[in-house]
Hints:
Layout: H1 3-18, H2 28-61, E1 80-81, E2 87-91, H3 96-101, H4 108-124, E3 134-137, H5 151-168, E4 172-176, H6 178-184, H7 196-199, E5 204-206, E6 209-214, H8 219-222, H9 227-240
Parallel strand pairs: 2-3, 2-4, 4-6
Antiparallel strand pairs: 1-3, 5-6
The structure holds iron/sulfur cluster (SF4).
Amino acid sequence: MGQELKESITTLLEFYKEFGFDRLPLNLSQKTENRKQKTEDRDSEIQGFKEEALNALREEIGDCQRCRLSKERTHIVFGEGNVNSKIMFIGEAPGRDEDIQGRPFVGEAGQILTSLINKMGEASGLNFTRKDVYIANIVKCRPPGNRDPQEDEMSVCSPFLERQVEIISPEVIMALGRISAYTLLDVQGPISKFSITKARGRFYEYKGIPVMPTFHPAYFLRNPKDKSLTWADAQAVLKKIGLKG
Ligand code: SF4
């Protein structure tokens, strides 16, 4: 501590002592409250900006006919969740239930994803749940018969996701499944050669954001024993943002 600062503090303490105080009359709990309120106000302001930007993007997508997936879809599945979330989950495409409801991951695979998110929330000690994170897909319309989205469809649709990611600015992304991981990681070579089993378990980057590729939740409908691998990936994601895993 500098001499000048020491002298100032001594003078201040003496001043208060003369008036009968035995310590500085600071209301620290009030200060902490004020700081907390300021952070909450700032978060809700940011949330407002993000929601406005996402609404504008949704309007721009409109009744999109930009690729052939528009022909058989019922609903565009834009994505949903907390726009201030630190974690974003990205799958490949809506399935039958998602197409009907217009929401991501609401079928059987969605239930597995919801359990994973809830388990992460519990492990982190923050008890966050599905509504507290953001979920989207590489393409926003269901490929007929749940086939894989094709490369031209992904390249037309993924710029919308790119802008969603920019708006939400998560601290970390979990890429769910081979196609999501292949697209986000900008892998060289054909998708047929890309293996999620080999890629999962370590971080890559998408626009400067760490990305953890892992299995698609639907994979566990046939291979439940591999859930422990995705749980290990999820724990690494929590640690990446400073939470308990
Ligand atoms: S998948 Fe994307 S680009 Fe294709 S029609 Fe749907 S919203 Fe438009």
